[in-house]
Amino acid sequence: MEDPEAAGAARPPGLSSLLPPREFLRSRKGQLLLAESVLSFIIFICYIASLAASFMMAPLLEFLLALFLFFAYASKLNEKFKGIHWPLADFLRCVTAAIIYFAISIAAVSKYSDGASKAAGVFGFAATIVFAVDFYITFNDLVTFLKQGSSDSPEGHKTEDEDSDSDSD
């Protein structure tokens, strides 16, 4: 019997259809989003178990945002919904996450003495690095995206409109 993925057949319905494609998991963006989700979840659990429980909301929100973007990119929602500037939204998410994780990690490590707070701080510094790498890569994608948008000059749109007017005559 042949492996359905090797034959290029569609996945059978069920729980396996919810899993992202292997190509996306092997991509740099997929691995970064997966690492961000896992680190944010670990940090969230550490903050729940620590004396610094007041910091738990930031990792929870970052976990949910990273998980949403992971499945949005995996299911190619970014190609279906062109009205959203995906690279810009992803860039802003990564920049704010890196800054927030850096700040709360410093506070957790310096202000609280329990082990869970220290662990959350250490994982927070690791998350800061992962988010910084992601926003650097996303910045390069954003520059490319913006250059593509600026290459569509108003003259190009004007000639298309003139062409459609001459076709209707």
Please tally the helical runs, counting DSSP H or I stretches of 4 or more residues: 7
Based on helices, strands and strand pairing, what is the structural class?
mainly alpha
User: What's the structural domain tally?
Assistant: 1
User: What is the rounded distance between the termini?
Assistant: 61 Å
Unreliable segments of 5+ consecutive residues: 153-164
Q: What is the percentage of strand-forming residues?
A: under 5%
Mean pLDDT equals 81
Shape annotation? globular
Radius of gyration: 22 Å
Label this structure with key terms.
169 residues; mainly alpha; 7 helices; globular; MARVEL-CKLF_proteins; membrane
Polypeptide structure, described:
The protein is mainly alpha-helical. The chain has one domain. It contains seven helices and no strands. Helix 2 runs antiparallel to helix 3, helix 2 runs antiparallel to helix 6 and helix 3 packs antiparallel against helix 5.
Provide a short characterization of the protein structure.
With 169 residues, the protein is mostly helical.
